[in-house]
Amino acid sequence: MEQKLQRQDISALLIAGPTASGKSALALEMARELGGEIVNADSMQVYGVLDRLTARPDAQDLAEIPHHLYGHIPPAQLYSTGLWLKEATETINDIRARGLLPVVVGGTGLYFRALTGGLSEMPAIPDEIRNEVRSRLVSEGVEALHAELARLDPQMGERLRPADRQRILRALEVVRATGRSIIEFQGRGGEKIVDPLSARCLVLQPERPLLHARINRRFARMMEEGALDEVRHLLALDIPPQHPAMKAIGVSQIADHLAGRLSRDDAIELASIATRQYAKRQMTWFRNQLGEEWEAIHQ
Questions:
Q1: Is there a single domain that holds both residue 35 and residue 109?
Q2: How many other β-carbons are positioned within 10 Å of the β-carbon of residue 44?
Q3: Which of 111, 133, 256, 257 could form a disulfide with 267 if both were Cys (CB 3.0 to 4.6 A apart)?
Q4: Contacts of 93 (CB under 8 A, 6+ apart)
Q5: Residue 156 located in a structural domain
Q6: Domain containing 264 — which CATH number?
Q7: Do residues 200 and 295 touch, judged by C-beta distance below 8 A?
Q8: CB burial class (10 A; 0-12, 13-18, 19+) of residue 188?
């Protein structure tokens, strides 16, 4: 970065980027330099158990600079952008109250959108409705949920197709919980917890060959550093397969390896491919969804 930052010049530092782009290392460097504390904005790194598999900061980093909202949610517990925003708001306000700089880092674009006021305010969904809908997704399939959505909310049923699995789940949860279409809630911008005009907003955009090489090396290292035991522990919890923690990249591939369905090398290769595909989706989202206040950092 050509311009040297001063803590008094900004209200927060936001660092987004695809997986394996080096954003956690940059956040640590900037927090050290500017007197900050780090707040997680990655939807997989909030879950416990999967320390290595989700590339959470290691013990040395955690000991050097305070890190918040990492590994604090049990894998069996459902979590949402709304819950993260509530916790992040409390954490950021506390950091500021102590005269320090919030350094928010992660790869989940919706978290950053929520933080900067760009996410629609959605109603709270009771756990019993969320659990029922997601269980039915497994037992009955997305087509049955789409048919129910079309009956309860014809406009959204017409707008969505069965391939829009996550959007169908969310729209059905909202109409079941409130009796109102999700369309009524969309477009209502939330409060700006961090004003992007007073913050420094960085998005890392590494060159693809460099990123792919990092991804390949990192997953092989994860296997050496305990990812196998993490997945064993996760599987022993008997968590429903539709839960987000079970969809962390590498879980299914390592599970297949542990069950004898994949060799170690094949598990590494398939997980690396899935990670590269995920990184591509992240970079596309960041290019298309982040505002002009975000400064691209090319590597």
A1: yes
A2: 21
A3: 257
A4: none
A5: yes
A6: 1.10.287.890
A7: yes
A8: exposed
User: What is the domain extent for residue 178?
Assistant: 127-184
Per-residue pLDDT of 19-77, as tens digits, reads 999 999 999 999 999 999 999 999 999 999 999 999 999 999 999 999 999 999 999 99
Asked if 12 and 194 touch (Cβ cutoff 8 Å), the reply is yes
C-alpha dihedral sign at 20, 21, 22, 23: negative
Return d(Cα 81, Cα 256) in angstroms, integer.
Answer: 30
**Do 291 and 226 share a structural domain?**
no
Q: Which residues contact 186 (CB under 8 A, 6 or more apart)?
A: 120
pLDDT of residue 2: 44
Task: Single out the residue of 75, 80, 103 nearest to residue 5, CA to CA.
Answer: 103
- In angstroms, the CA 228 to CA 250 distance is 10
Inter-residue contact 196 to 253 (CB < 8 Å):
no
Q: Are 21 and 211 in contact (CB under 8 A)?
A: yes
**pTM exceeding 0.85:** no
Helix axis angle, 208-224 to 264-289, nearest 10°: 140
